[in-house]
Design a protein that fits this description.
Blueprint lengths: L2 E3 L4 E3 L9 H9 L7 E5 L5 H9 L4 E6 L2 H12 L7 E5 L10 E6 L13 H7 L6 H11 E12 H10 L3 E11 L6 E7 L7 E8 L8 H7 L7
Helix pairs in contact: 1-2
């Protein structure tokens, strides 16, 4: 897979179990970063979401945490090579044990496989399955680490997102349903939660392709055009 190059930064990913994917890029481009001075990326992996948020903010300090030591080393290297090295930090810790000070924004592209067969690759299992971070544990960690007026954004498959929404103590304020093609079945959901607000959530939708492999929709192009070289 080598290095994945974006317009303003590059991501080396040979040493990590989970490579740069559409889910992470979608979340990094979609989440509202307005007013966020301290941002936490739970399960940072290569650091791609943290790097995107650094590009989208002028002065925010962004911390990426992961329980895979190799991923932390990879993210730290990618952070150091970026234009925002002074604002990015990679830390080897779990969400459950993280003791850093409160964050204005927390983001996560978390593991979501609950009952499926575990992968023989232990690092890939850790990145993909909830064995090390259940949704209940994720919710508890986020609630503990969020500032009083903080926000939390994540992306999950549709069924798993409904499960998280049902159990979280946070308030859903914005939701975006993601389908692979225009008119297709919703496969992913991005959601923004608030520690305080309790309002009727904003509902959005986006399709990645407009019909035909590699024919991308205008809304997907618009959302990701500051990052992907192909746009």
């Amino acid at each position: 897979m080598g290095t994945f190059r974006f317009k303003q930064f590059a991501v080396e990913q040979d040493s990590v179990a989970m490579k740069v994917g559409t889910d992470g890029v979608l979340l990094g481009a979609w989440v509202d970063v307005e007013g966020a001075k301290r941002i936490l990326d739970i399960g940072t992996g290569t650091g791609v979401i943290a790097l995107m948020l650094a590009q989208r903010t002028e002065s925010a300090h962004i911390v990426g945490i992961d329980i895979d030591g190799g991923a932390v080393e990879c993210a730290a290297s990618n952070f150091a090579a970026s234009p925002w090295a002074d604002r990015l930090e990679a830390v080897f810790t779990s969400a459950q044990e993280c003791v850093l000070t409160p964050f204005d924004l927390i983001v996560s592209n978390p593991p979501y496989f609950v009952d499926s067969l575990l992968c023989p690759d232990s690092r890939r299992t850790m990145a993909r399955h909830t064995t090390e971070l259940s949704f209940e544990e994720l919710n508890s960690a986020v609630v503990r680490l969020l500032a009083d007026n903080g926000r939390f954004a994540l992306i999950l498959p549709t069924e798993q997102m409904e499960s998280f929404i049902a159990l979280t103590t946070l308030s859903l304020v914005r939701r975006c349903d993601v389908s692979p093609v225009v008119g297709g079945t919703v496969k992913r959901v991005m959601a923004l939660f608030s520690a305080k607000e309790s309002i009727e959530p904003i509902r959005e939708s986006i399709a990645i392709e407009a019909g035909g492999r590699g024919v991308y929709s205008e809304e997907y192009r618009e959302l990701t055009k500051e990052f992907y070289l192909k746009f």
